[in-house]
Amino acid sequence: MSSKPRVSVITPTFNRAGYLPIAVESVLAQSFEDFELIVIDDGSTDETPELMKQYLADSRVRYFQQPNQGQSVARNRGIAESSGEFICFLDSDNAWVESRLASALQAFEANPQADIVYGDYMVIDAEGRELGVNRMKRYSGRITPMLIHDNFVSMNTTMTRRRCFEEMGGFDSNDRLAEDYGLWLRFSTQYTFHYLPEVLGFYRVMEDQISTDKESRFKANEQLILEFLKSYPGALSYSERRHGLSRFYVRKGRYELSSGRPGLASKELARALWLNPLWSGPWRFAAKLAVQLVRIGAK
Fold this sequence. Notes:
The protein is an alpha/beta fold. It has two domains: 7-211, Spore Coat Polysaccharide Biosynthesis Protein SpsA, Chain A (Alpha-Beta Complex), CATH 3.90.550; 237-298. The protein contains eleven helices and nine strands. Strands 1, 2, 3, 4, 5, 6, 7, 8 and 9 form a nine-stranded mixed beta sheet that branches. Strand 6 (116-124) and strand 7 form a beta hairpin. It is globular. The termini are far apart. The relative contact order is 0.12.
């Protein structure tokens, strides 16, 4: 391996000793071998420091400890310590398929205009049982108009040119709920994304994950989207902005309805209709909401 690896892999971790070896070993098992793995221990109080010792014999593995400051700070520390031409992230409770790095690099070679390559992932439970491939619709090229209503760029499948971080900075250290979404929104204003329709990794769903708290995520995402639109007023046209927000509020309304809160769902529907009354999405949701309200009234 050269003094500067082709790819830098950054794994932030906090008290995930039970899963960290799976993540680390999935990186070490990659068919493409010119990489460095940087593990940032964000103040773990479990056996993480001890178990990492077995991996340090591999010169590609580097391990850093710091007081707990959150994933954003840990990821930014990893970026600062890295030297690869490309940067990837792998959370410590997830894992990659063996061809993950090779596939992304091949995609860059075939699409030299791309700045960020990303793909699909298999959802697994706490025990590693496969629950199915995440089927979110994903996009290539200028993705800001689509990204504004939902984050479909899965962090653990991304490979990003280093210069993107050098030019636009890293994660918002104050954000602990939607830091990856904010990063991709910012990057989408300047860089080209390429969607690779392959399963590149495994995403573990557990009860204690922040990402499982949908109510908090919707609130954080709404605030993030509105702040983004204020900070980057030229990123979207007037119609793209209103359509994107309308789609977001339809999503939020559907969540409220599924959570048994038809009143809040009606509020989100009103927002969606005001933003884009010519789009069929709010009207379809209105019909579904009406059916639910009739059922509730009939009880």
